[in-house]
Protein: histidine kinase
Organism: Paenibacillus timonensis
Amino acid sequence: MKMFYILMFVSLWLLGGFFLFNRKKVANIWITLTILLGSSASYAFAMHLSIMPVWSEEPWLPQIVSRLLYLSTVVAMHIYFYTLPFVFCMGGLWLGGDMALRTKRGLSILLALGVFALLADHLMNEPWNSFDLDRFRWWDGIYIVLGCVFYYLAYVRERDPAVRSGRRRALLIPVVLLWAYTSDYLGFDALKMGWWSFDLKSNGMWQANFVVILGAVVMILFYTARYGFLGIKLKIERERLDHSLRTLTMGVSILNHSIKNEIQKIDYLAEKCSSLLRAGQNGKAAQTIEQVHGLTHHLLHMVNRIKEKAEDVELDESEQDVHDLVDSILDSARTLVENKPVVLSASHETDGLLLCDPVHVREMLSNMIRNALDALPNRGGAIALRTSSTRREFRIEVKDNGAGIPQEHLTKIFEPFFTTKKNAQNYGLGLSYCTSVMNKHGGSLTVVSEPGKGTVLVLHFPRYRFKARNRTQEKMARERHGVDHLNLS
């Protein structure tokens, strides 16, 4: 049993350190600190019950080192009882994106004052190495309850399916903290930390902590490896995909994939133009030819920009009006759905300029729309594009109500040459190309899908690439674009 105490704090330290090392990808640094600080009690118990009873009398251990280690265990228990509930509460508070930044900062300062008050009360009224739980357990309970409420609100109020899925997995943290509060904060009556000894009065529930803690560690590792936890899988996935793209000489195949999509549009427009000319509608035929020119212009750009390898995709960046960019892609896609029961629409929750490579972004979205069309049943369906922004990123979402993607394929669809389509002309390169381009932009591509209900693909651009218009500029832009597109949630 004593070895489990060591295993608990070591596993939590390693896990928290791993997330902290990858903090640029972690959605919430407070959650990482919750994992790290949650190991403080395990550390103190392991030192007092497992390690120091063996080491304390060893001649090779200096007395000063032993005293410092004892001091560290007392500090660890102070952290566990007074700081951990606050840090957990901050994790839930800052996880949500719908609260104003000023409000979050104000609440953070107010709640931090409570921590200092509890610490001051302890130092003034109790021995520094003794803890009377009746003095603070209910105050800590307020932090725990508030943290659970914040976590839950961050989950239920999130509209983006990919982010919402990640926050559902993050609800594991409140579950573990509720157990810890029940077993330790409510289960303990008093604790006195002697010289490498414990005088603990409790109901004994804490002895089952190792089952909950190690089980939570296993689940977090599972989530990280398979689905992603706090954004970490994304980094691993990128490195694996980048390696695959560097080792495969598939530039020609990607180019063929792009040409195939555009030629289908050109072929349709050529037939349409021929029909219009036979009907004597020369004006409409000329307009159709202009659409062909736009497609060939796009293809020439792709030929010039894709080199021998996929890793040689280079960005030619410029600021693009988001409305114009999305509308031009929809106009091109409508050539594929004329006379078909398919509804194409777009909604813009924000307006502004996006710093990107317009050629590659158009090609990415064209691929995503093509995939959505292939997933729709013969009776038709709907494909909706939506733009939005948060404090951290700008998003372009492509949503369909088609067949969806089987769960066993979700982890493979971004791999080069993987495809579920039976057509020999489909090379399975569209989404791997999109992933490579988004990596070049410093962003990412995520997918949420449910068989029979549809798929949502989301391009995530870093926030610094998006320059939002102020309200006056946005109003002028909307007047320029006319009536807003249908907002399809």
About this structure: Residues 243-250, 307-311, 422-429, 481-489 have pLDDT under 50 and may be disordered. Residues 77 and 344 are 59 Å apart (CA to CA). Residues 63-95 form the longest helix (33 residues).
